[in-house]
Amino acid sequence: MDREMFDSSTMPDLVPIVLVARELVAALAVERWGVGVKALADALGKSRDGVSHWVRRAAHRRAEQPTFARRLDRLDRRLAKALEL
To answer: What residue segments make up the domains of the chain, in order of their start?
Structure first.
């Protein structure tokens, strides 16, 4: 996978890479793929509140940071291509 997609050095607020990755994955799963917050939280062993927070932060970043929005779209395309049967 393209490390630039998760590179936090180009994010305006220099968010740690783990937070960026969590938000990207949570936003894709919940908003684009229809996975419920509870189901995702259970699968990850995290709280529903925590996962919901990641999705909200991702939505905010997507609206405020074009780079994040492009990363989200790119990750969605790559995962869809990788999972084609």
So the answer is: 3-82
Residue 4: CB atoms within 10 Å: 11
Quick: pLDDT tens for 8-64: 555 555 568 888 999 999 999 999 999 999 999 999 999 999 999 999 999 999 999
d(C-alpha 7, C-alpha 9), whole Å: 6
What does the CA dihedral 54, 44, 48, 72 come to, rounded to 10 degrees? Answer: 30
| Contact of 40 with 51, CB cutoff 8 Å | yes
Q: Tens digits of per-residue pLDDT, 63-81? A: 999 999 999 999 999 999 9
